[in-house]
Amino acid sequence: MQQQQQSKIKLGYWDVRGRGEPIRLLLNYLKLEYEDEIYPLSDREKWFNFKRNSQELFINLPYVQIESKETQSQSIYVESDSISIFICQNFGGEQLLGKDLVLLSKMRGVTEDVKLYLSRYAYHNDFAEADQLFLQKRLQPILLRLNTYLQNYKYLLGSNISYLDFVLYESLKTLEKIKKEYLQSHTYLVQYIKNIENIPQIKAYLSSERFHKDFLFYGDPSPI
Ligand SMILES: N[C@@H](CCC(=O)N[C@@H](CS)C(=O)NCC(=O)O)C(=O)O
């Protein structure tokens, strides 16, 4: 564990992996101590109660609440991409933002598209149709390009890891669950997953109790 953290970090999210998991991966990569505030999908009132009482206009899940140990003051951060940037900037992860904002934004767009088509599949009422429409027609071409890209680059921004890699990693794990064969045909994407899982902090996290291995990838009503 790195030197004493000056703030307490709490991550609020449903009891699914969803948009919370890339943030958990980032927190673990940076060896930060944090507390999970889990909102059960089976008892949504806990969340709605918190939401009603929040002073943050854009309150949503996930959120990150920071409590300063010194002043006891609390602040709240929302929007998953913004939360990750905030953590990188304030908790020793500046290098995870890369140096090229244009490239960062480009690869964020690509990872968002991957996430979009997977979730369209997951929330569709006819998986056979969704496979055609979203996985084969839309997702596969992007995966092909990513596979080509990762033949030359270890991570999304090049040779150094960024917070976006945790977002893509989580999407690829989702695909592995949904249609393993679609992932396995892309050698470099498979290698990319292994690279991330071999990072010591990530390896330690995935085998720890902090990792919610029973959580589904998506919230109700998706069975994935
Ligand atoms: N743009 C937001 C989307 C957040 C969002 O859609 N959150 C979903 C779960 S993934 C939710 O259930 N939010 C709680 C709510 O809308 O009350 C982000 O990236 O954080």
From TrEMBL:
It catalyses: RX + glutathione = an S-substituted glutathione + a halide anion + H(+). It is an enzyme of class 2 (transferase). Keywords: Transferase. Its EC number is 2.5.1.18. Residues 93-215 form the GST C-terminal domain. It comes from the Eukaryota. The keyword Magnesium does not apply. Coiled coil: none annotated. One of its GO terms (biological process) is glutathione metabolic process. This is glutathione transferase. It comes from Tetrahymena thermophila (strain SB210).
